[in-house]
Design a protein that fits this description.
The protein has strands spanning 5-9, 16-20, 24-29, 35-40, 45-49, 54-59, 66-71, 76-81, 85-90, 95-101. By secondary structure, the chain is an all-beta fold. The strands form three sheets. Strands 3-4-5-6 form a four-stranded antiparallel sheet, with no helix packed on it. It has a four-stranded antiparallel sheet with strand order 7-8-9-10, with no helix packed on it. Strands 1-2 form a two-stranded antiparallel ribbon. A hairpin with a 6-residue loop joins strand 1 and strand 2 (16-20). The protein is globular, with a radius of gyration of 14 Å.
């Protein structure tokens, strides 16, 4: 992981927003480049708006370190954690679209 510091600069006015939180597991830009998502070892996912450099959502639900994330079409975000739980998020509202639990029990 990476130390829990992320600095986001506005693409419009160069305003700076700083995140000083849990250790960072991953970072991902949306396909359109409007949003930046950051997954934390504490299971949270932080989503920034690139134009304003402001946090638009802190997504919670993962009970284990959030180890992966990827944007799909329409700025939908999929995230996964170390315990095998996957979430699909609507980044416009911060709402959970879907939750899937993957089991290795066979």
């Amino acid at each position: 992981g990476m130390e829990g510091k992320v600095t986001v600069l506005s693409t419009v006015n160069m305003k700076e927003s700083q995140f000083d939180g849990p250790e960072v597991s991953w970072m991902e830009w949306s396909r359109q480049g409007h949003l930046l998502a950051v997954g934390g070892e504490d299971g949270t996912v932080w989503v920034w708006d690139a134009e304003s450099a402001l946090v638009v959502h802190v997504l919670t639900g993962h009970g284990a370190p959030c180890t992966a994330g990827a944007f799909g079409p329409a700025e939908i975000l999929a995230t996964g954690d170390a315990s095998g739980v996957l979430y699909v998020w609507d980044t416009a509202t911060g709402a959970v679209i879907s939750r899937v639990v993957v089991s290795n029990d066979g």
